[in-house]
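Researcher: Please translate sequence to structure tokens.
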Amino acid sequence: MNLLQALFILYIMMLKQLNLNKCKVAMQNLRHMLLNESPSIYCIQEPYCTNLGFPANVPKNYNAFGVTNSRAIILAHVSIDLIFSNEFSTEDITVCFMNSSKRYIASIYLDILKDPIHPLMIKMAEYFATSKKNAI
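Model: Translation complete:
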């Protein structure tokens, strides 16, 4: 991919956040959106997953990022250069690095029964502050 193609993808790309409430119909509707919209990044909370713990019905032209049975995932078009960050990801937090824009993207599920400030979120904030990296 050359620089012009990368800039064009960044220009048309959109970032969207959705909570699917572990609903099969909502996941099917998301699949329809993924197939019919321009390349995008989706931060998904409570995706509908298969018995193996992976998001169901994700089209082949999208990558799914997150740990098994994750309550927060990131879906990104295959043309978007995301790299999964295992260091910052848990069942409730999925973090990816976008190499072309040098930014981190996080999808976070906040459980009302847990402390809202997860220790990993503090670690991420400290990392971004000291390294002067960008995050979304």
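Researcher: Any highlights?
Model: Helices lie at 3-12, 24-36, 119-131.
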